């Protein structure tokens, strides 16, 4: 028999588990082998990163009006001097406030809709789906008393964002409908959706864009041929919704049959069942796949340069060919790469917080 | 005492709630339901038992049209079931169902599970639906869990939520498909207690279960199915003490051994 009458008072944790030093000792220097690894890795990082940091920050030149401002290091002057063009493309200078207004709306909407608890989210969604797209359309392209701006003057980041945003907003609902159609019990609908998905998924996006810009005008009378940007957008949306459909279908297939049966047994019809019970679960499950598709879409928008649209990457490339700025290819590509990375990484982070927030402790 | 309640109940309600006439169903070539004839009067409580694969689930799933039959008639509350969508939605509003694996919606809270169909199918205002749902959650003794998600509840609690969720649609008949067979022993009782209460209130119930204690307490009739047929049908007293068919005897000897 054991009886312990002496209560043990709480003592502070041993020094080795506490604080930054404790952490380092435990994770980085726990054994001789680990210590060697840590030192070697640190040394490699130092060797590798020092020149990069020195080139891009310490020795870099940031502002000026031409290349004479640059001596050694990165010449970010190339970017800062042309930043307006990189953002707005060839959009008329005196009308750029209209683009700014669209950017502003987009930013405010993101701030309104993305955080977990914001007042009046419902109105935010309604605004985002009605006034926002309509006002953006007229602001960007003109009409209703605003001066028209032809889409071939659009370019740079603004064009990239238009392509990506329209693509993302349209591809998700189309993808959901296609996925539902592919699982439909009606053979005609199933056949149509399956064919659509398989055809678009099997063709490279470059081919799609090329067909839209070069082939279509050959077959369709000239008066009917609509704007090149619109054609590219339709191509992108078709292509991405086929991918999206397969991602969503994966989620639908993971929902147990009992969920369908319970919903049906309560009298919910097909659309209500899908909207209220099946899709919320299926979409939540495939958030990583959906965001993956969004990210691919975002980067694929740069392929429109093949049909002569100047998205961010294309316009940076065009800038590199300027005789006054020859030799700044690295700066140009690093900048374009960073902008793309920034947007894609933001999407990825947001999706992770969304996943956490939507987790209801469901054990599958 | 039980019998007196039952008699009073039956005297008041002679009308048939559910009628199955010469019901036949095949899965491909497999004849799963064979010439099923069954009449359930209003307020009657029926327990269905039988070996695995005998077609018990299939039969009660035909009643609320989760399965289609090929021959025979199903008449519910005087309405013959066809493949008309209107009929199907109507019958599903009147017939509640509780499943073996609960099938709660994991992305909704307990309260939202209970108000979903009343709001979207019965078009009740949200406030009213929530008030009714809370009443039923109190009756199944878990009002304090209303804001939790199903994943945070024990199996017994989940099944009680599932019962409350069905009751919120104010059904005239409740179908139970082995409601306790996915539960640990200590949780079976809390679910059975709720079901006994429901039975005592006069709900028409069809219950597939092997809980013979439950059958003895509340059933008006026990039905034994084997190989897609109704083999024997009797009051619980005689069914358990004096089974007629050899197959029933064999089945009872097997399950009572446990
Ligand atoms: N969707 C289906 N397709 C083909 N056969 C099926 C299907 N569903 C059930 N069956 C078969 O029909 C028979 C009856 O099934 P049912 O689920 O009704 O049995 P049960 O009496 O409920 O059995 P248990 O006690 O195991 O639940 C079984 O042999 C089963 O294999
Ligand atoms: Mg069964």
Structural class of chain B: alpha/beta
Cα gyration radius of chain A (Å): 27 Å
CATH class of the domain at 150-358 in chain A: Mainly Alpha
CATH superfamily of the domain at 150-358 in chain A: MetI-like
Order of helices and strands of chain A: HHHHHHHHHHHHHEHH
Mean pLDDT of chain A: 88
Q: List unreliable stretches of 5+ residues of chain B.
A: 1-13
Helix content percent band of chain A: 55-70%
Overall pLDDT level of chain B:
89
Q: Biggest interface and which pair forms it?
A: A-B, 23 and 28 residues
Low-confidence stretches of chain A: none
List ligands, each type once. Answer: adenosine-5'-triphosphate, magnesium ion
Q: How many extended strands of chain B?
A: 10
Give the helix/strand layout:
The complex is a heterodimer of chains A (364) and B (258).
Chain A: H1 19-27, H2 32-58, H3 77-88, H4 96-113, H5 121-129, H6 131-141, H7 156-182, H8 187-202, H9 205-219, H10 228-254, H11 257-265, H12 270-285, H13 287-300, E1 310-311, H14 312-320, H15 329-358
Helix pairs in contact in A: 3-7, 3-14, 4-6, 7-8, 7-10, 7-13, 7-14, 8-10, 9-10, 10-12, 10-13, 11-12, 13-15, 14-15
Chain B: H1 2-12, E1 16-27, E2 30-41, E3 45-49, H2 56-63, E4 71-76, E5 79-80, H3 85-94, E6 95-98, H4 110-120, H5 126-139, H6 155-167, E7 173-177, H7 185-200, E8 204-208, H8 212-218, E9 221-226, E10 229-234, H9 236-241, H10 246-257
Parallel strand pairs in B: 3-8, 3-9, 6-7, 7-8
Antiparallel strand pairs in B: 1-2, 1-4, 4-5, 9-10
Helix pairs in contact in B: 4-5, 4-6, 5-6, 6-7
The complex binds adenosine-5'-triphosphate (ATP) and magnesium ion (MG).
Residues 56-57, 177-178 of chain B line the site of magnesium ion.
């Amino acid at each position: 028999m054991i009886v312990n009458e002496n209560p043990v008072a709480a003592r502070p944790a041993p020094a080795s588990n506490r604080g930054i030093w404790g952490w380092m000792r435990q994770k980085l220097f726990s054994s001789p082998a680990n210590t060697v690894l840590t030192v070697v890795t640190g040394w490699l990082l130092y060797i590798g990163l020092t020149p990069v940091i020195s080139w891009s920050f310490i020795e870099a030149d940031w502002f000026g009006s031409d290349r004479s401002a640059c001596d050694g290091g990165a010449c970010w002057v190339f970017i800062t001097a042309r930043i307006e063009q990189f953002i707005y493309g060839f959009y008329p200078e005196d009308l750029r406030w209209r683009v700014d207004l669209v950017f502003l709306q987009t930013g405010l909407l993101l701030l309104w809709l993305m955080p977990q608890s914001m007042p009046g989210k419902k109105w935010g969604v309604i605004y985002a789906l009605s006034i926002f797209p309509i006002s953006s359309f007229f602001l960007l392209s003109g009409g209703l008393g605003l001066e028209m701006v032809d889409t071939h003057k659009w370019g740079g980041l603004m064009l990239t964002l238009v392509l990506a945003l329209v693509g993302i907003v349209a591809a998700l609902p189309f993808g959901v409908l296609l996925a539902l159609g592919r699982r439909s019990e009606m053979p005609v609908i199933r056949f149509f959706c399956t064919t659509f998905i398989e055809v678009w998924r099997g063709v490279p996006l470059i081919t799609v864009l090329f067909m839209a810009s070069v082939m279509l005008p050959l077959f369709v009378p000239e008066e009917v041929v609509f704007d090149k940007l619109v054609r590219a957008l339709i191509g992108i949306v078709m292509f991405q919704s086929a991918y999206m459909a397969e991602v969503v279908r994966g989620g639908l297939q993971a929902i147990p049959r009992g969920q369908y049966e319970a919903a049906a047994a309560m009298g919910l019809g097909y659309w209500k069942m899908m909207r209220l019970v099946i899709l919320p679960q299926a979409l939540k499950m495939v958030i990583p796949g959906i965001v993956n598709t969004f990210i691919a879409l975002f980067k694929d928008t740069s392929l429109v340069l093949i049909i002569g649209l100047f998205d961010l990457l294309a316009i940076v490339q065009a800038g590199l060919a300027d005789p006054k700025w020859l030799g700044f290819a690295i700066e140009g590509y690093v900048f374009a790469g960073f902008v793309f990375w920034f947007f894609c990484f933001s999407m990825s982070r947001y999706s992770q917080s969304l996943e956490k927030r939507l987790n209801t402790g469901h054990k599958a | 005492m039980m019998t007196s309640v039952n008699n009073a109940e039956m005297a008041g309600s002679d009308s048939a709630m559910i009628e199955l006439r010469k019901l036949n169903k095949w899965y491909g070539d497999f004849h799963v339901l064979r010439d099923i004839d069954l009449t359930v009067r209003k307020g009657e409580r029926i327990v269905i038992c039988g070996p695995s694969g005998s077609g018990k689930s299939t039969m009660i799933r035909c009643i609320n049209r989760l399965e289609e039959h090929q021959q025979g008639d199903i008449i519910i509350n005087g309405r013959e079931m066809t493949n008309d969508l209107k009929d199907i939605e109507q019958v599903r509003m009147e017939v509640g169902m509780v499943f073996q694996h609960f099938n709660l919606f994991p992305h909704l809270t307990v309260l939202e599970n209970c108000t979903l169909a009343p709001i979207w199918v019965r078009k009740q205002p949200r406030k009213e639906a929530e008030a009714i749902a809370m009443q039923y959650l109190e009756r199944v003794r878990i009002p304090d869990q209303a804001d939790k998600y199903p994943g945070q509840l024990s199996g017994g609690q989940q099944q009680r939520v599932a019962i409350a969720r069905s009751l919120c649609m104010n059904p005239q008949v409740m179908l139970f498909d082995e409601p306790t067979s996915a539960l640990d022993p200590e949780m079976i009782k809390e679910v059975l207690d709720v079901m006994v209460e429901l039975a005592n209130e006069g709900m028409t119930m069809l219950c597939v279960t092997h809980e013979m204690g439950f059958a003895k307490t509340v059933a008006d009739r026990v039905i034994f199915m084997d190989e897609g047929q109704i083999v024997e049908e009797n009051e619980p007293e005689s069914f358990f003490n004096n089974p007629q068919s050899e197959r029933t005897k064999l089945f009872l000897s097997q399950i009572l051994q446990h």
